[in-house]
Structures are given as structure tokens and as C-alpha cells.
Design a protein that fits this description.
By secondary structure, the protein is α/β, with parallel strands linked by helices. The termini are far apart.
């Protein structure tokens, strides 16, 4: 391009907030990168830019200074300014015709990258107001945000040296308090040094999967089960072995028959996701005996065990472990609020050092200030009171949902496991399309999650006893909202009679 044509093509927008020298810099840079200004081409003196563009000489000098500093231009005072001859030659431009039929080439993803993309599919995160029947959502109306805000403000006033790097394993005081809490509420046997704070339970599952398994190693998972576990194991390039569940939890005997050489088992023993049953004591003991005999690891995902409405919360699987093989995973997303992004692991002693080092590589450390605020929240008794208050509240809300189903939806839905949790699994009483019900529900303003979402495609042919249905969240809804939404759901089923 002739320099006069280049000057004529320049357009500076004086209404744009971007400074004029930045706009000029960007225009010249783009012309160089595209080949419009080839290597060795002399640029006009600054005064010519000033006259053509009605800008100050300092604006031009500032743009030139940036381009010189970044290596796009070369030159000295009195000898002119040139496009740097050492720049790589830009690729030849394809013809207009060929451009219509070609796509930009991009570097290929790794095998692990493709696995992440393929198996980490999840519903889009909701940015709107919570509505019925959103799953795994605590009741934010019950959270003491005034107390939390006060604790946050106090911590920021006393930040002192807490703005630097910290221990990758987490804030020491929080780990101490969690150790006490887990011992008393879940029977977890641990000391603070065994606890690692994570950015949610999902990070814990990813770290455990990638550190404990080699590519090709087999791992048992519940089917149906948590997609986040499936995704983490696939990302670790493990052979994921889908094991059916029944009313006693993971079918350990089936797993041993079909996948005898597995190196790991991932389970939700206290409250299965999504069906809600509890793993029986015999199954727990069988699982631990298998792990001991095969030198295998067990991941216990205890994601919402605080919320049990028929009796006290059950003791953890980890409390039965005599072989130091259970890694216990918990989260604050279901207890406090998801945006907090705090989870934790309780690890066997042999895993503490390697998992801590892996955690440091992934994100160096989880944000320290939320950990400190949570420690204060626990130490001052707010956490215990919040658990007690919400356990009662969510129990009342679950009872409201059960009543609504019995009164208005019994012709369409049935349920079994009501011991605890934030959600209720319901099954269709007659054959129906989950997707049609979900789509019709969305049109009616309802957010419905099909149970098949938790059943991987590759496991469907083995799941001959899987019953279609929905997972209904209730914990974030008032009793009035539950009643009104249940009537809407009844209308959805009536409109989709088979």
C-alpha cells in the first residue's frame, strides 16, 4: 500500500474513550501485521500525520514510541522511521473466493483437553432469580448476610499481612475448626494437617483423580451419579466403570465381578446423587474390604450430608476406614452459598504432601480472605446456628413438596427416598419423555432437571432398571412457591398426556 493511501485510510474516532495516540498506534500496528505496510517501508514524518489527521505532534510521537518499544518500527532521530525489517513476513492473503470456503486453522486440543470438553458438560449457570425447581440451591433467604458482611468488613480492616501468599493447604485456623466440626458432626477421624481447603469440591475431585490414577486405570463410579466426578476421572484419562445402584447404594458385588482390577471408587454414601438413598452398612464394609484387598483408594463425596430430616446425620464412610484409604470431600456451596467456592478434603496421611503440591500447581492457593471470614463465622457460633436453622427450614420445605405431590401430582409422580438433601428424586408413574416435560416446564416458568442428566450415555444400555423422572429442588423455595409451582407442574403433565 502506498503511504498516501495508508494515510487516507486512517480513521480516528474523537468520540471514542480510547486516546488518539492509542488509536493511531493500533492502526499502524494492524497495517504492519497485515502486510499493508511491508518491512522496510518508511513512515511519513510526524508533521505529515499532524496535517492529514488534525492531531498534535505529541500524539504521533506517543504512538511511534510504543511501536518502537514493541519492535514494530526502527529508526533514529533525523534518519526517518521504518517498518522493522526483522519482522516475519505475513501470510499471503487468500482470494475472496477461497476465503468463503475455508475456516481459520487452530491448534488441536490435547486428548485430555478433548476429554474435558466432552465430559464436563453441565447446565448453564443461572443468572436469573432462583425459581422452581432449581436443584442443589440452598435457601439464600435463610443466610445471615448481615453477619457475614460484618465479618468481611472486620477482616478487611485487620488485613495486616494477609494480602500475600499463603499455605496452599489453606488457612490454618479454618482447618483447625473444620477438624473439630467434622469429628463432632460426621465422625470424621482427622487432625487439621490432613485437611486441604479447595476452590469447591469440584477442584478436590479433579486433584484426587489426576494424582491417584494413571491413564487407563479403572475407577468405579455410581450410575446414575454426579457428572462432575465423571468429568474429573475422564480428564485423568481413567477407564470409568459405571456401577449400578439400588436402595442400598453402590452395588459392590457387581463392581467386583465386572471390574475387579479398579484402582479407585468414588461414592456418595450418605446421600446418593441424584436418587437420595443411603449406602447400607454392609455395602460400606464390603467397599472398604475390597479397597484394602486391592490397595485401592475410595473418594467419599459427602456433599450435603448435614441435611438429614429423619434422625441425626449419619457417620461418614471415612469413620469406618481402618486402612487409611478414604479421601473425604466436602463443600460449603450447599451449606452456605455456591458463590463462596470453598470446599475441603480430609486426606489419608500418605496423600497430604502430594495433593498439597498438586494444589499449589493448579491455583497456588484458594483465596485467603473468604477462608478467614468462614473461620470467624464458625468460631463465633454462626455456622452451627445456621445449620440447625436451615435443617429445620429445609425439612419443612421438603414436607411442603411431599404434600403437594400427594395432593396434586400423585397421578404423575412417585418418590421413595426422603431422608434428606436439598432435592427430591421423583419418577414418572407412566412412560413419558423427560425432555418434553422439561421443555414444557421451561415454557411454564419452571426449571426442571431430568434424572437422565445423571446417567452417562455409555452407561444407559447397562441401566435396565433406570426409571425416568425429575430431580426437584425445594430448599431455595418458600412453602407458598412450592405450592404454586406444583400446580404449574401438574398443568404441564396434563398438557402432555400420553
Amino acid at each position: 500500500m502506498h503511504i498516501s493511501l495508508f494515510l487516507a485510510s486512517l480513521q480516528l474516532d474523537r468520540d471514542d474513550r480510547t486516546p488518539l495516540f492509542r488509536q493511531l498506534y493500533a492502526s499502524i500496528k494492524q497495517a504492519i501485521l497485515s502486510g499493508a505496510l511491508p518491512a522496510g517501508r518508511q513512515l511519513p514524518p510526524s508533521r505529515e500525520f499532524c496535517l492529514r489527521l488534525a492531531i498534535s505532534r505529541q500524539t504521533v510521537l506517543n504512538a511511534y514510541e510504543l511501536l518502537l518499544a514493541e519492535g514494530y518500527l526502527s529508526g533514529t532521530v533525523g534518519k526517518g522511521t521504518y517498518v522493522n525489517v526483522d519482522l516475519p513476513k505475513p501470510p499471503s492473503r487468500p482470494s475472496t473466493l477461497s476465503m468463503r470456503h475455508t475456516k481459520p486453522m487452530a491448534p488441536a486440543l490435547s486428548r485430555r483437553g478433548n476429554l474435558l470438553v466432552e465430559f464436563a458438560r453441565s447446565p448453564p449457570w443461572a443468572q436469573d432469580k432462583t425459581r422452581a425447581f432449581r436443584v442443589s440451591m440452598p435457601g439464600l433467604d435463610a443466610f445471615p448476610f448481615d453477619v457475614w458482611s460484618r465479618l468481611v468488613a472486620r477482616r478487611w480492616r485487620r488485613h495486616e499481612d494477609r494480602l500475600g501468599y499463603g499455605d496452599p493447604a489453606g488457612y490454618g485456623r479454618l482447618r483447625e475448626l473444620l477438624a473439630v466440626y467434622l469429628r463432632s458432626s460426621r465422625g470424621v477421624i482427622c487432625n487439621p494437617a490432613q485437611i486441604i481447603i479447595t476452590s469447591g469440591s469440584q477442584q478436590a475431585l479433579y486433584l484426587l483423580s489426576t494424582v491417584l490414577l494413571d491413564p487407563g486405570d479403572s475407577a468405579w463410579v455410581e450410575s446414575p451419579g454426579y457428572r462432575g466426578t465423571f468429568a474429573s476421572l475422564h480428564a485423568a484419562q481413567a477407564k470409568v466403570c459405571y456401577v449400578p445402584v439400588d436402595q442400598n447404594g453402590l452395588d459392590v458385588a457387581y463392581a467386583k465381578r465386572h471390574y475387579p482390577n479398579a484402582k479407585l471408587a468414588a461414592v456418595t454414601p450418605s446421600h446418593h446423587l441424584p436418587l437420595g438413598m443411603t449406602m447400607s452398612l454392609q455395602r460400606r464394609l464390603d467397599l472398604l474390604a475390597w479397597a484394602k484387598a486391592h490397595s485401592a483408594w475410595v473418594i467419599e463425596d459427602d456433599y450435603d450430608s448435614e441435611y438429614r430430616y429423619s434422625g441425626a446425620p449419619l457417620a461418614s464412610l471415612q469413620s469406618l476406614d481402618q486402612n487409611d484409604c478414604v479421601a473425604y470431600v466436602g463443600t460449603m456451596s450447599k451449606v452456605l452459598f455456591p458463590g463462596l467456592r470453598l470446599g475441603y478434603m480430609v486426606l489419608p496421611q500418605a496423600l497430604v504432601a502430594p495433593i498439597t503440591q498438586a494444589k499449589a500447581i493448579v491455583d497456588r492457593q484458594t483465596a485467603i480472605m473468604p477462608q478467614m471470614v468462614l473461620a470467624d463465622f464458625i468460631a463465633e457460633g454462626h455456622f452451627g446456628r445456621h445449620i440447625k436453622r436451615t435443617r429445620k427450614l429445609y425439612g419443612e420445605r421438603q414436607a411442603a413438596l411431599l404434600h403437594a405431590i400427594d395432593a396434586h401430582l400423585s397421578a404423575f409422580l412417585s418418590y421413595e427416598n426422603t431422608e434428606g438433601g436439598l432435592d427430591l428424586a421423583v419418577h414418572f408413574t407412566k412412560p413419558r419423555s423427560e425432555q418434553e416435560i422439561v421443555k414444557a416446564g421451561l415454557a411454564a416458568g419452571l426449571e426442571l432437571r431430568p434424572l437422565s442428566y445423571y446417567l452417562p450415555t455409555e452407561a444407559k444400555e447397562k441401566s435396565t432398571h433406570f426409571l425416568p423422572g425429575l430431580l426437584l429442588g425445594f430448599s431455595s423455595l418458600s412453602e407458598q412457591e412450592i405450592h404454586e409451582s406444583s400446580l404449574k407442574l401438574r398443568d404441564v403433565f396434563r398438557s402432555k398426556r400420553s
